[in-house]
């Protein structure tokens, strides 16, 4: 469920409605980037063991001297790690790296290893999810979810396990709105997080996006991030430049339904 400044998971946990993504930010740069994000009002930080920057993400949060409960921290189980015990061990590595006692959200990074994309890992994912349920029930994680999961991947979890995922983090941007998967997640009360809301910058030069951003008096990036919110998805923009970090959070405008439809009609730049 989407509220004014937060989304609410089906277990009642609230998450700030915009996150600071740290994908592709090297460990040596992550400290300064996360510090800038916290300084400029972000309270939702997204990382992953595979990003190899958890240590400096955690150090930045600790050094900023903000109460732990005031920051929502997400991390992810590496895509190639599957299985019950393997998940418990990887989780312990993550919280050690971050220097925290618990996570706010923990995700399975992908349903298959990145170098075996499309491989059927259904049984392994079920065992992995059962380990995550244990961590959740033990109070080590406030919410659990998945990333890059298709409808069938999620359904297999729902059919075999006790807890419906609270989140599915997927690539979502203008031209790639994943209507069918989004509808499925809404049906099951699964919050969709939108990573790469700017398509790693590839949509910012679109003439249609530029023209519409001028109409609203915002930047193309702000329009793209606001588009995610208009579709009730939670955007995770990232930057290492302070002016852009600030800009990406200034979203106090609305896109009209008519203009959202125009943006929906834009073709996927990555498909060309």
Automatic annotation (TrEMBL):
Signal peptide: none annotated. InterPro entries: AKR (IPR020471), Aldo/ket_reductase_CS (IPR018170), NAD(P)_OxRdtase_dom_sf (IPR036812), NADP_OxRdtase_dom (IPR023210). The keyword Zinc does not apply. It holds the Pfam family Aldo_ket_red. The keyword NADP applies. Coiled coil: none annotated. Residues 18-267 form the NADP-dependent oxidoreductase domain. Keywords: NADP, Oxidoreductase. Belongs to the aldo/keto reductase family. This is Aldo/keto reductase. It comes from Carnobacterium antarcticum.
């Amino acid at each position: 469920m989407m509220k004014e400044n937060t989304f609410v998971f089906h277990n009642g946990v609230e998450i700030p409605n915009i996150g600071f993504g740290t994908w592709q930010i090297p460990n040596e740069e992550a400290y300064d980037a996360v510090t800038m994000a916290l300084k400029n009002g972000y309270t939702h930080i997204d990382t992953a063991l595979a990003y190899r920057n958890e240590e400096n993400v955690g150090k930045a949060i600790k050094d900023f001297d903000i109460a732990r409960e005031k920051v929502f921290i997400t991390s992810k189980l590496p895509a190639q790690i599957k299985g019950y015990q393997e998940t418990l061990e990887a989780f312990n590595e993550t919280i050690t790296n971050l220097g925290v006692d618990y996570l706010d959200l923990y995700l399975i990074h992908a349903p298959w290893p990145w170098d075996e994309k499309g491989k059927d890992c259904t049984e392994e994912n079920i065992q992995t999810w059962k380990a995550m349920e244990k961590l959740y029930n033990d109070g080590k994680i406030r919410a659990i979810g998945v990333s890059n999961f298709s409808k069938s991947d999620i359904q297999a979890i729902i059919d075999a396990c006790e807890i419906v995922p609270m989140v599915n983090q997927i690539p979502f941007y203008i031209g790639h709105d994943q209507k069918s998967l989004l509808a499925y997640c809404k049906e099951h009360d699964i919050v969709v997080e939108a990573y790469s809301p700017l398509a790693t910058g590839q949509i910012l030069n679109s003439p249609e996006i530029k023209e519409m951003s001028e109409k609203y008096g915002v930047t193309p990036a702000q329009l793209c991030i606001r588009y995610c919110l208009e579709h009730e998805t939670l955007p995770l923009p990232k930057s290492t430049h302070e002016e852009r970090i600030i800009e990406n959070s200034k979203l106090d405008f609305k896109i009209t339904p008519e203009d959202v439809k125009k943006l929906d009609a834009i073709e996927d730049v990555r498909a060309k």
